[in-house]
C-alpha cells in the first residue's frame, strides 16, 4: 500500500512530453507509481482542477549563511522550490578559518544584502573545512534538498587570508587552492563557482577575492574538475569577460559551464543574444556551455545608505570607502555629480544605465515629500527642471538618505526576455534567493514563469516550462533521481492551480537575526509542496511544523 496518492491531477512529468491526467503514488519518500490506476494508499488527495509537477530546482541561490540559522531556507519551499543549488558566484562560507570569519562576513555584507550584525549573530560556525560544512548541514537537517558549489572567494581567502583581495596568487598558492577544490569535490560539492563581475564587492567596495584571480588561476581551478571527473562550473562574468575564455575553461575541465548572469539591457539590446549565440557555437564545438537567464525583471528596492544600484559605476567607487558624513558631503558636490552624469552618458553593459523613467520613489521618509511616492525620477526631475541625478540626490539628502527608491534595472523588455527564456541553450535561473535581501526577492521565479510567461504571455507551453525548471537543471547537475514524475524518483512535488499560479507582491519582513529586514514574497496558487515524500507546504505557505525533509546532495552523475 502506498503512503499517499495524489489523484485526478494534470501531470507535467518534467520531460517536456505532453501532460496527461492521472495519479502519482508515493511510498517511503519515492514515487512508486504514475498512471490512472495506481492502487490503494493510506491517504488520497483529490487534485481535480489542479496540476502536479516535480519540485522546482533553483540553480542560483545564496542560502549558504542563512541556512545555518534557517534550515527551511525560506521562502523558497513556499514558492515551489524543492532543491537549491548554493554557493553561486564563489560566495560561500566554507572553508573558513576561525580567525577569518569576520573577514568572510565583511566580504559578504554587500553581495548578501544583509547587515554585518545579522551575519555575526546568525551564522552557526560549527565547521571549518568544506567537508565539515556539508556534515554540519546534514547534522542539523535541511528543509529543501541542498547541493553546494565550492566557492572561489572562500578558497582564495582560506589560502591567502587578507591578501585574497589585494593581489594575484603565486603558483604555490594556486596549487593549495586546487587541492582544496579537489577535497571539496570528493566530499560532495556539485562543482566550482566564481565571479568576474565588477559589481561584486564586499564591505567598503573591496572586490570579492575571486576578482583578483588571473587567467592561470582560473584555468587551474576549473581544470581540477577534470581530475575529479564530474561536477559543474559556473561564473558570473563581467562585461569584459569573453565567452571564448569561458569556453577555454570548460574545454580544459571537460565539464559543463553555466554562464551568469545573462540579463537584457535596453541600452545594449543585442549583447545578451550575442552571448547566447557564442554559447551555441561553443556547444557546436563540443563544449557544454549554458547561459543562465532570468524570468523576472531585475527590480531593486534601495536607499542611498546601501546604493548597490550605483556601485558598479567607477565614479561611485570612492564613496564606498567613506563614512556617512563624508558620503553626504560627496553626494552634494558638483564634481562628483558631473562625473556620474558623464559616466552614465556612455552606454555600457552594467547594472544601471541611466534609465531614470524606471526609477521610482517607493516611499518618501518625510510627510512633506509624500506626493513623490509612486512617481518616477524622470517625471519628478522634469517637473523641477532638474537633471534626474540631481533630483534623486537632493531628495535623498533632504531626508537623511532614508528615501526608499525602486528601480527596474534590466530585463524590462518582455519581447527580448521571452526570446532568452526560449533559447535552447539557456537555463532559467538567477533567483539570487538568500542574497540581496534588502533589495529584492526573486525566489518565486518559477511560479512567475508558470503564471506570467506560460499562462499570460504564452511564450512557451507548460510542458516546456516545467522541463526548463525541473528536468533540464537536473540533467545539467547530474541529479539523476529528481526532476521528473517517474517511478523510482524522489517525491519532490509541486501541486498548483494553473489558472492562478504566480508570485505575490514583495513584502518587507524583519525576521533576520537581530531583527534586520529583508524582502520576501508569497506564492500564489500553490496547494502543496512535498520534499522526499514529506509535505512541507500547504495552501497557507510553509507549515508551522514543517519537517526538515531535505537531503544534502553529494552524489552527482558524471
What's the short story on this structure?
Helix content is 31%, strand content 21%.
Write the layout of secondary structure elements.
Layout: E1 2-11, E2 20-27, E3 30-35, E4 41-46, E5 51-54, E6 56-58, E7 81-86, H1 101-112, H2 116-122, H3 130-140, E8 145-151, H4 152-160, H5 171-187, E9 191-195, H6 215-228, E10 232-236, H7 243-253, E11 257-262, H8 271-284, E12 289-293, E13 298-302, H9 324-332, H10 334-344, E14 359-363, H11 377-384, H12 388-398, E15 404-410, H13 414-422, E16 426-428, H14 445-456, H15 462-477, E17 493-496, E18 502-503, E19 507-509, E20 518-520, E21 523-524, E22 526-531, E23 534-538, E24 541-542
Parallel strand pairs: 1-4, 1-5, 6-7, 7-8, 8-9, 9-10, 10-11, 11-12, 12-16
Antiparallel strand pairs: 1-2, 2-3, 5-17, 13-15, 14-15, 17-22, 18-21, 19-20, 22-23, 23-24
Which characteristics define this entry?
558 residues; alpha/beta; TIM Barrel; 2 domains; eight-stranded parallel beta sheet; 15 helices; 31% helix; globular
What does the largest sheet look like? 9 strands, mixed
The fourth-level CATH homologous superfamily of the largest domain is Metal-dependent hydrolases
CATH topology (fold) name of the largest domain? TIM Barrel
- What is the CATH architecture term of the largest domain? Alpha-Beta Barrel
> Would you identify the regions where 5 or more consecutive residues have pLDDT less than 50?
none
Write down the CATH class of the largest domain. Answer: Alpha Beta
Number of strands: 24
Strand content: 15-25%
User: What is the CA-CA span between the terminal residues?
Assistant: 35 Å
Helix content estimate: 25-40%
Tell me the number of structural domains.
2
Radius of gyration: 23 Å
Shape: globular
Number of helices: 15
Mean pLDDT: 96
Estimated structural class: alpha/beta
Amino acid at each position: 500500500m502506498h503512503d499517499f496518492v495524489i489523484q485526478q491531477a494534470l501531470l507535467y512529468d518534467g520531460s517536456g512530453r505532453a501532460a496527461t491526467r492521472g495519479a502519482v503514488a508515493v511510498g517511503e519518500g519515492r514515487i512508486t507509481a504514475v498512471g490512472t490506476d495506481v492502487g490503494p494508499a493510506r491517504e488520497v488527495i483529490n487534485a481535480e482542477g489542479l496540476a502536479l509537477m516535480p519540485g522546482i530546482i533553483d540553480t542560483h541561490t545564496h542560502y549558504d549563511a542563512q541556512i545555518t540559522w534557517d534550515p527551511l531556507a525560506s521562502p523558497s519551499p513556499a514558492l515551489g522550490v524543492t532543491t537549491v543549488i548554493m554557493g553561486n558566484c564563489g560566495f560561500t562560507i566554507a572553508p573558513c578559518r576561525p580567525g577569518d570569519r569576520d573577514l568572510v562576513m565583511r566580504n559578504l555584507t554587500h553581495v548578501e544584502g544583509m547587515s554585518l550584525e545579522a551575519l555575526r549573530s546568525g551564522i552557526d560556525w560549527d565547521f571549518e573545512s568544506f567537508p565539515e560544512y556539508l556534515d554540519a548541514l546534514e547534522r542539523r537537517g535541511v528543509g529543501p534538498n541542498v547541493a553546494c558549489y565550492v566557492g572561489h572567494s572562500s578558497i582564495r581567502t582560506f589560502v591567502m587570508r587578507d591578501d585574497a583581495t589585494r593581489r594575484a596568487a603565486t603558483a604555490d598558492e594556486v596549487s593549495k587552492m586546487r587541492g582544496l577544490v579537489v577535497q571539496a569535490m570528493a566530499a560532495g560539492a556539485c562543482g566550482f563557482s566564481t565571479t568576474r563581475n565588477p559589481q561584486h564587492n564586499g564591505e567598503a567596495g573591496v572586490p570579492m577575492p575571486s576578482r583578483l584571480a588571473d587567467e592561470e588561476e582560473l584555468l587551474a581551478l576549473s581544470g581540477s574538475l577534470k581530475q575529479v571527473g564530474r561536477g559543474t562550473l559556473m561564473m558570473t562574468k563581467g562585461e569584459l569577460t569573453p565567452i571564448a575564455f569561458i569556453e577555454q575553461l570548460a574545454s580544459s575541465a571537460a565539464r559543463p559551464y553555466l554562464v551568469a548572469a545573462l540579463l537584457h539591457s535596453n541600452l545594449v539590446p543585442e549583447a545578451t543574444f550575442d552571448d547566447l549565440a557564442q554559447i551555441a557555437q561553443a556547444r557546436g564545438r563540443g563544449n557544454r556551455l549554458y547561459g543562465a537567464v532570468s524570468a523576472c525583471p531585475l527590480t531593486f528596492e534601495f536607499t542611498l545608505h546601501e546604493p548597490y544600484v550605483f556601485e558598479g559605476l567607477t565614479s561611485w567607487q570612492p564613496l564606498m570607502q567613506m563614512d556617512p558624513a563624508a558620503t553626504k558631503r560627496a553626494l552634494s558636490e558638483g564634481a562628483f555629480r558631473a562625473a556620474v552624469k558623464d559616466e552614465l552618458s556612455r552606454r555600457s553593459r552594467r547594472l544601471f544605465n541611466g534609465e531614470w523613467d524606471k526609477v521610482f520613489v517607493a516611499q518618501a521618509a518625510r510627510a512633506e515629500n509624500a506626493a513623490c511616492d509612486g512617481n518616477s525620477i524622470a517625471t519628478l526631475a522634469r517637473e523641477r527642471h532638474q537633471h534626474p541625478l540631481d533630483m534623486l540626490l537632493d531628495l535623498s539628502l533632504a531626508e537623511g538618505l532614508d528615501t526608499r527608491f525602486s528601480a527596474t534595472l534590466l530585463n524590462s523588455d518582455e519581447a527580448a526576455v521571452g526570446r532568452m527564456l526560449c533559447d535552447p541553450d539557456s537555463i532559467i535561473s538567477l533567483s539570487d534567493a538568500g542574497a540581496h535581501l534588502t533589495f529584492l526577492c526573486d525566489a518565486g521565479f518559477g511560479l512567475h514563469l508558470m503564471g506570467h510567461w506560460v499562462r499570460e504571455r504564452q511564450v512557451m507551453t507548460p510542458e516546456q516550462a516545467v522541463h526548463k525548471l525541473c528536468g533540464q537543471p537536473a540533467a545539467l547537475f547530474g541529479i539523476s533521481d529528481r526532476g521528473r514524475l517517474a517511478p523510482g524518483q524522489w517525491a519532490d512535488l509541486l501541486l498548483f492551480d494553473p489558472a492562478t499560479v504566480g508570485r505575490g507582491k514583495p513584502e518587507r519582513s524583519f525576521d533576520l537575526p537581530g531583527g534586520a529586514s529583508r524582502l520576501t514574497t508569497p506564492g500564489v496558487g500553490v496547494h502543496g509542496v512535498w520534499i522526499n515524500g514529506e509535505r512541507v507546504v500547504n495552501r497557507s505557505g510553509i507549515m508551522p511544523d514543517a519537517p526538515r525533509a531535505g537531503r544534502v546532495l553529494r552524489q552527482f552523475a558524471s
